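Colleagues,

For the teaching module next term, I've prepared a clean inverse folding example: a structure given as C-alpha cells, and then the sequence designed for it. I'd like students to try predicting residues themselves before seeing the answer, so please don't circulate the second half yet.
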C-alpha cells in the first residue's frame, strides 16, 4: 500500500515537471537573435558615420588648398591672403580645421575682412575643386591720411577705408603674386605721395594729409569733412598752375579743424581756411609772391586765412 502511494506521487511529480517544460517562453531565443542583430547594425552604423566623417572632414577631397584673390588695387594682395589663411587654420569645436569645404564659414571670413577694410562689395565662393575665391571691390581712395605711425586710405567723403602702411617704413613693399604685383612706396623722407604701381606701371598718386594731433583712427570712421578732401585735391592741381610751386604734402592741426596747411617742395608752408573762398585765397597767394616776397629761401609760411590781410614770415 505504501509502495503504491509512493509510485503515484512520483508520477504526479513527473507530470508536474513535464508541465513546467511546456510553459517556457517560446520567444526567448528569438529575442536573443534580435538583440544580436541590433548590436551588429549599431556597430555598422557607427563605423559608417566615422568613415563618412573622415571622408567629409579629414580627407583631402574637400580640403581647401587653393586661394584665389581678385579685385585688389590699393589693398595689398598678401594682406587679404594672410586673413584668409589665418581663418583656415582656426579650429572648429577644437576638432576640425576650417580649411574644409563644409566647415569654413563664409560669414565669419567676410566679417574678418570687412573689420579691417571698408569695401564696396565682397564675394566669397567655395568650389569643389578645393579652391576658395575672394572677389573684392574696393572703395575708391582719394587721400592718404597719416596719423601716429600709420597711413590710411580715405575716400571722397573723408572716411577711412583701409590701413595701408607705416610711417617709419619707407621701403617699397611688393606682392609675391606675379600676375598682380603691387608696389607701394613713399617718396622722399617725409610723407608726400604714395605711388601705387600694378604690374610695374603707375596706377595712381595720392596727396597725403598729416594729422599733427596723431589721433587714433578707426576704419569706417569719418576722419575729415568731404570739403577738406575736395580742397586738397584742387590745391594739388591749382597751386602749380597759379604760382608754379609744387605741393609735397598737407598738414592739419586736428581732424576737426578747418585749417589746411600745404607744404611746398621748397620747404615752406601755405595756410588755407577751408571755410573761405579757395580761388580768392589763391589770388592773394599769387599777389604776395609777385609783389612782396622776392627771396623764398628764408620763407617759413604764408598765411591766407584772414581775407585780404595776408601774413608771411
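(Answer key — instructors only)
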Amino acid at each position: 500500500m505504501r509502495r503504491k502511494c509512493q509510485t503515484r506521487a512520483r508520477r504526479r511529480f513527473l507530470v508536474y515537471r513535464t508541465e513546467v517544460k511546456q510553459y517556457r517562453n517560446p520567444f526567448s531565443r528569438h529575442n536573443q537573435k534580435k538583440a544580436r542583430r541590433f548590436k551588429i547594425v549599431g556597430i555598422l552604423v557607427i563605423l559608417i558615420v566615422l568613415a563618412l566623417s573622415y571622408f567629409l572632414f579629414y580627407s583631402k577631397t574637400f580640403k581647401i588648398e587653393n586661394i584665389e584673390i581678385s579685385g585688389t588695387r590699393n589693398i595689398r594682395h598678401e594682406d587679404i591672403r594672410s586673413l584668409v589663411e589665418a581663418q583656415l587654420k582656426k579650429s572648429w569645436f577644437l576638432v576640425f580645421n576650417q580649411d574644409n569645404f563644409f566647415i569654413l564659414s563664409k560669414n565669419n571670413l567676410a566679417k574678418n575682412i570687412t573689420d579691417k577694410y571698408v569695401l564696396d562689395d565682397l564675394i566669397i565662393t567655395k568650389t569643389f575643386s578645393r579652391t576658395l575665391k575672394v572677389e573684392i571691390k574696393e572703395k575708391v581712395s582719394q587721400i592718404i591720411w597719416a596719423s601716429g605711425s600709420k597711413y590710411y586710405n580715405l575716400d571722397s567723403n573723408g572716411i577711412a577705408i583701409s590701413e595701408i602702411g607705416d610711417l617709419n617704413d619707407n621701403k617699397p613693399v611688393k606682392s609675391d603674386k606675379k600676375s598682380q604685383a603691387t608696389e607701394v612706396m613713399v617718396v622722399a623722407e617725409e610723407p608726400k605721395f604714395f605711388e601705387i604701381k600694378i604690374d610695374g606701371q603707375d596706377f595712381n598718386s595720392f596727396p597725403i594729409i598729416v594729422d599733427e594731433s596723431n589721433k587714433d583712427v578707426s576704419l569706417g570712421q569719418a576722419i575729415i569733412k568731404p570739403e577738406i578732401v575736395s580742397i586738397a585735391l584742387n590745391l594739388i592741381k591749382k597751386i602749380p598752375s597759379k604760382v608754379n610751386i609744387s605741393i609735397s604734402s598737407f598738414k592739419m592741426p586736428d581732424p576737426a579743424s578747418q585749417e589746411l596747411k600745404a607744404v611746398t617742395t621748397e620747404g615752406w608752408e601755405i595756410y588755407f581756411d577751408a571755410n573761405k573762398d579757395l580761388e580768392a585765397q589763391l589770388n592773394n597767394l599769387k599777389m604776395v609772391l609777385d609783389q612782396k616776397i622776392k627771396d623764398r629761401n628764408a620763407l617759413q609760411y604764408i598765411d591766407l586765412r584772414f581775407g585780404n590781410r595776408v601774413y608771411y614770415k
